[in-house]
Amino acid sequence: MDRRRFCKLSAMAALGVCGKVSMAREANAASGFARWRITVLRRECFPDLQSRYLSDPETGPCQMFSTGQTFVVDESNYREYASGGKFCSRAWRSITEAVDASMKSSVCADANARNVAIASCGDGTRPVIFCIEIDPSDD
């Protein structure tokens, strides 16, 4: 992260604007900063929870994604992903929260050093686990 961007984010945090992360993401996407490669690492399924809590106990794993599936998000297609047109909205919220946290925090120092975040969608009975590479440079 360059110094100018760091100062901008710090000023926003000081003003209490960090709760409006979607505005910051939109600004990043518009400036060409946000380029992510999202890879589906796993699709989990918990049939015991599904049978207990879902109206359809035979739902199975998430049908929207496949293990190994890859998405590249940049300024040209960011809004399509963010609007729910190309991606599950619940998973998108989890991914963007993970990216925001990894850019602002040093809690996971090793992952941040590689610009990688791991996120899972919020579906407790059939979560999908994603690897998000921020600004991948090998493409």
Task: Characterise the protein shown here.
There is one protein chain. The chain has helices at 3-14, 21-30, 47-53, 78-82, 89-104, 109-113; strands at 36-43, 70-73, 116-120, 128-134. It has 139 residues and is α+β, with helices and mostly antiparallel strands. The chain has one domain (3-134). A four-stranded antiparallel sheet has the order 2-1-4-3. A hairpin with a 7-residue loop joins β3 (116-120) and β4. Mean pLDDT is 76; it is low at 15-32.
Describe the secondary-structure layout.
Elements: H1 3-14, H2 21-30, E1 36-43, H3 47-53, E2 70-73, H4 78-82, H5 89-104, H6 109-113, E3 116-120, E4 128-134
Antiparallel strand pairs: 1-2, 1-4, 3-4
Order of helices and strands: HHEHEHHHEE
Strand arrangement, largest sheet?
Answer: 2-1-4-3
Could you tell me the number of beta strands?
4
Strand content: 15-25%
Helix content: 25-40%
Straight-line distance between termini: 19 Å
Cα-atom radius of gyration = 16 Å
Which structural class should the secondary elements be placed in? alpha+beta
**Structure annotation, total helices:** 6
Low-confidence stretches: 15-32
Mind summarizing the main beta sheet?
4 strands, antiparallel
